[in-house]
Specification:
This protein is an alpha+beta fold. It contains three helices and twelve strands; from the N terminus they run H-E-H-E-E-E-E-E-H-E-E-E-E-E-E.
């Protein structure tokens, strides 16, 4: 009888510890910072860099919007292209629900072949500089087609592996990964949300 009780006690304790994790913390894959964007491809606009980023792997683009009379400019940029792509879009394409593009009006979107084509949408703001200074002035730039770099803190982030720091020339004590947003793509609609 004691062996059964001891076994049951050890089993229950192990299950509880497994659910608690090492420090009792639950780490969410997604940030709680605000992003709200819905784009409708049924009106065309497949010439922007956003379309191939959503429909292929290992191809990432930066995107942002800028208000203009009668709609918005959708601004996209990829590594290796000298010019950004600017398309004029109407309110029907970019719906009322979506114009908050992260902390500094810039997101990074693409799919990783390492993660079976998983869709990633990251904030273009350096997460470590934001955490250290609580300011939004640290925009990431492409280092190559699969990495982004912060000029301020000298960290390099990998886009194919969930946005973790892959190089840190200043050897910081703490390295946070890129802020990631929830996103869905149906082939017609692309939507980014914070929740």
């Amino acid at each position: 009888m004691r062996k059964k009780f001891l076994f049951f006690y050890v089993f229950c304790s192990s299950v509880i510890l497994c659910f608690m994790g090492c420090k009792g913390e639950v780490v969410d894959e997604y940030t709680t910072h605000v992003a709200s964007f819905r784009f409708d491809f049924q009106y065309g606009h497949t010439q922007s860099y956003l379309y191939p980023a959503l429909n292929s792997t290992n191809y990432f683009c930066f995107f942002s919007t800028s208000p203009i009379e009668g709609g918005y400019d959708l601004i996209t940029e990829v590594y290796g292209e000298k010019e950004t792509n600017v398309e004029h879009i109407t309110e029907a394409v970019l719906t009322q629900s979506g114009r908050a593009l992260g902390l500094n009006n810039g997101l990074i979107v693409g799919r990783s072949s390492f993660q079976n084509g998983e869709l990633y949408v990251f904030d273009r703001q350096c997460p470590n500089c934001f955490s250290e200074t609580n300011t939004k002035n640290f925009t990431l730039n492409f280092k190559d087609s699969q990495h982004v770099y912060c000029d301020k803190c000298k960290r390099t982030y990998g886009l194919l592996n969930g946005g973790v720091v892959v190089a840190d020339s200043l050897n910081h004590e703490k390295n946070e990964k890129l802020f990631r947003y929830r996103a869905t793509y149906s082939g017609t609609y692309f939507q980014v949300t914070s929740r």
